[in-house]
Amino acid sequence: MWQAKIYVTLRKSVLDPQGSVVRKSLFALGYHNVSEVRIGRYMVVDLEAADRAAAEKQVRDMCDKLLVNPVIEDYTFELVEV
Description:
Elements: E1 2-10, H1 17-28, E2 40-47, H2 52-67, E3 73-81
Antiparallel strand pairs: 1-2, 1-3
């Protein structure tokens, strides 16, 4: 059994209005050293696979086909055996 921790964020070239609002709010609270905030998603997926390579391939396929919009989003993931 494998567990994938998937992090999805907007590409740097894509405007992140939600992140901008959070940055401005942090500034209003006195956190003047915060220069940028990017908002994203975090997913945990448990899956069965024969080995690490098969699990990594399956996670990439899931991200490319459904979980991530490759036009505006990037992703990374961590894979641990559970």
